[in-house]
Design a protein that fits this description.
CATH class: Alpha Beta
Strand content: 25-35%
CATH topology: Aminopeptidase
Distance between the termini: 26 Å
CATH architecture: 3-Layer(aba) Sandwich
Order of helices and strands: EHEHEEEHEHEEE
Radius of gyration: 15 Å
Number of strands: 9
Strand order of the largest sheet: 1-3-4-5-6-9-7
CATH superfamily: Gcn5-related N-acetyltransferase (GNAT)
Number of helices: 4
Length: about 180
């Protein structure tokens, strides 16, 4: 397994991977599915291309020995209100047929190393509040709830079609120092 920064050539594979892991019937092969709470897409090629062109963001690809993209994660640099350099972790994805084998743990570890090399002292992420298993998974990796929440972007179909009207995000953080 190796982790590398994604390129524009990776966009079609990343789009298929992320949508297959979060939405639709294919996502039910793994435990990260959002198919029961969100329909539609998780991401599209346009959004992935935007991420790749933003100097404050990086998409990291997890590749198997055949160079196939089997996982990814998005990192975004930001400065907190105290002026500290931080990273937001999003779109952590492992092929649904390869989940539960430690690849997510491996990839998040590499993402944290990348963020540290970028100068980040803290990583943050958000999880939809009904994803209790996922929140517990991040907590086992050292992420702590901040007590803050963020609204779900209702009306923005780029993030999916909500099947419920009570969705919001729980904010997590982890020190990288």
């Amino acid at each position: 397994m190796n982790v590398s920064v994604a390129s524009t050539a990776d966009v079609p594979a990343l789009n298929r991977l992320v949508n297959s892991a979060y939405r639709g019937e294919s996502s039910r092969a793994g435990w990260t599915t959002e198919a029961d709470i969100l329909g539609g897409q998780r991401v599209d090629e346009g959004r992935l291309s935007e991420i790749l062109s933003d100097p404050k963001q990086r998409l990291l690809c997890l590749r198997n020995d055949s160079n196939e993209v089997i996982g990814c994660v998005c990192l975004e640099q930001y400065t907190d209100r105290d002026g500290a350099r931080c990273c937001y972790l999003g779109m952590l994805t492992i092929n649904p047929e390869k989940q539960t084998g430690g690849l997510g743990k491996f990839l998040i570890g590499r993402a944290e190393e990348f963020a540290r090399a970028w100068g980040a002292i803290r990583m943050s992420l958000t999880v939809i509040h009904v994803r209790t298993e996922l929140m517990a998974w991040y907590e086992r990796r050292g992420y702590k709830r901040t007590g803050e929440t963020e609204p779900f972007p209702y009306g923005d179909e780029r993030f999916g079609l909500p099947q419920r009207d009570d969705l919001h995000f729980v904010v997590f953080e982890k020190s990288l120092t």
